[in-house]
């Protein structure tokens, strides 16, 4: 199947899940995760109408942004991977969104390094719902303090929360962590933060995420195919 056809299938999955959840399909944004795939694949998806793309690795993302410079104004680039201090500058300069804020130091650097005159960098806080020390993301009980601190930074706009739950087989098992992220966001909103983005759901658990209120699903494999890692 072509990228255009796979993209259309993903759009239909979103539409059906939204219908099942009694939600408007337009309330679920599709982020096409293009990591490991060449710029030509991003362009194919772009030509099929896709406008938001997610990248996990700084150098790879920057290279693709450069290759698609002719349509830069029409694309929204989202950085969704782990972020180290020495890479924040280029991310602050080149990307529109960062989903993986998990400590204040990174957020402070992104805010300080956002170019003057650029719109605020849209950010989400990544929450570690599986409780494993090895996974990135802030612990749920530390999310509120981090969210308030990030929301106060001048050149960032805190939009919501992101998570990457452990893979699970059944729909109910997939729904549970997504429900926890939604409840956490509800708590933060009740606490006065203006948040509108729940970044959750990937190729295997898109339906569970939409049922639990995802406003942005991050889909790689179902659009671009299976990834092969070379490094
Ligand atoms: C790779 C990745 C995705 C996409 O995963 P698929 O299972 O290929 O849809 C989504 N979010 C993050 C943070 C990723 O790293």
Automatic annotation (TrEMBL):
CDD domains to which the protein is assigned, alphabetical: PLPDE_III_Yggs_like
Family: Belongs to the pyridoxal phosphate-binding protein YggS/PROSC family.
PANTHER family listed in its UniProt record: PROLINE SYNTHETASE CO-TRANSCRIBED BACTERIAL HOMOLOG PROTEIN (PTHR10146), PYRIDOXAL PHOSPHATE HOMEOSTASIS PROTEIN (PTHR10146:SF14)
HAMAP family reported in the protein's UniProt record: PLP_homeostasis
Single annotated GO MF: pyridoxal phosphate binding
Signal peptide, first to last residue: none
Cofactor(s) for this UniProt protein: pyridoxal 5'-phosphate
Keywords: Pyridoxal phosphate
Function: Pyridoxal 5'-phosphate (PLP)-binding protein, which is involved in PLP homeostasis.
Protein name: Pyridoxal phosphate homeostasis protein
